Amino acid sequence: MEFDWTAPNSSNYFASRLYLNTSNNFATATLVATEYGAAAANDARTVTGLAAGTYYGWIEAINPSGKPAAAVATGSAIVTT
Domain of life here (predicted)? Predict the structure, then answer.
């Protein structure tokens, strides 16, 4: 499953955390990757090794202290094997 996003244009931006779940519920989603990059940069990450099924994704920006901004839903994607 691929995540594509543009990082926030903020001097406080440090990284983005990527989450997945098989239900549309961020509270029970699993952190699958942390992608470091520059503010305002276009970024992408492919998560591999997933079983077939429907997945819901979220991206959460963090500052250097690890404090997150509100998670942004990326919608659903169907993974086939």
Answer: Bacteria
Own/partner pairs, 8-14, CB within 8 angstroms, 24+ separation: 8/39, 8/40, 8/61, 8/69, 9/39, 9/40, 10/39, 10/61, 11/39, 12/63, 12/64, 13/38, 13/39, 13/61, 13/63, 14/62, 14/63, 14/64
How do residues 10-59 score in pLDDT, each as one tens digit? 999 999 999 999 999 999 999 999 999 999 999 999 999 999 999 999 99
- For the whole prediction, is pTM greater than 0.85? yes
Q: What is the span of the domain harbouring residue 21?
A: 2-79
Strand partners, 15: 36, 62
For the chain, what is the domain count?
A: 1
